[in-house]
Structure of Peptidoglycan glycosyltransferase MrdB:
Amino acid sequence: MNSVVPAPIARQPWGMLIPLFMLVGFGAMVLFSAAGGNWKPFAIPHLVRFAVFLAMAGVMTLFSRDLVRLLAYPGYALVLAMLVAVEAMGFVGGGSQRWLDLGVIQLQPSELMKPAIVLVLARFYSGLPPSMTTSWRALVPAGVLIALPMGLVLLQPDLGTTLAIAFGGVVVMFLAGLPLRWFAAGAIGAMIVAPIAYFFGLHDYQRRRVTTFLDPESDPLGAGYHITQSKIAIGSGGLTGKGFNEGSQSHLNYLPEPHTDFVFATMAEEWGLLGGLAVILIFGLILRWGLQVAHRSQDRFAKLLAAGMVATIFFYVAINLMMVMGLAPVVGIPLPFMSHGGSSMLTNMICIGSLMMVNRWNRQAPQSRFR
């Protein structure tokens, strides 16, 4: 087979790329329908962005381990500075100040912090002697690295992205081998702080999202409108759906944000339960490949980096699916590779590019090395 297929093509991770292409292509079809049967303004930009960021991911695979380790702290500092710049001169959209207007693109730096926090923590723990993972030196510096961007993102305000940053950071800390009692203590502390944060730390609209999640039918035309319409769209799709480009909830503007946060509901109405299961299966194949890359990694840095990137994609998928089905509050987390949005696509393709990069490291490293 290698004599027929050129080596650069044969060595690509097709076990991940083929499902990814299927997911992006299916997403373009859903966005075509969300626009009322038009390729613009959602589907074509979606495909163009994917092509551009796929090329970026391909370039990332060429990076060496030493270069990536060298760039970890400067990259984190750069994204942190961008978050500070958002507070000073950020672009306001949808009532929140989350973007930097760079002319060619409106960049959301908080999205970039999701892979950046994974990278910097993987670098930090790879340089920490294993004997120190039970000391304060393994906890305090990492806690500061996570807390700084979380605080800046909360000021925007963006609770969903704040939780995503925390999730990626905690996963890397857990995999680095920190004592379980610290995580138990953190969970207890979170349960104590949660009521205080709810009453004094959240904005009114964020508190309404929590109460609406618990009882969306109490205000079906107000705070509960998003979840109610999403559940109606998903449920009305039945087993096989209403048919491509035949969704009434999105076409009649009952379903809010049918091309971004609620793109899964748009898809489920037209493709039904079978379409939803197919999407979940494809995500499962991509995440499974990422976990295999992490498992095959022979050094601590690569293993933590790969596992953290998988966790970041998983958080996107899990929270979005739970959100549109009424199992979690609406927090503005888009569905990877299907939702319309440049910053989200950039973040998730950075994760994919990082996994492809680690996969190349694994192929080049002797199996006994770095043990």
Observations:
- The first helix runs from residue 7 to 10.
- The chain has one domain: 21-362.
- The radius of gyration is 21 Å.
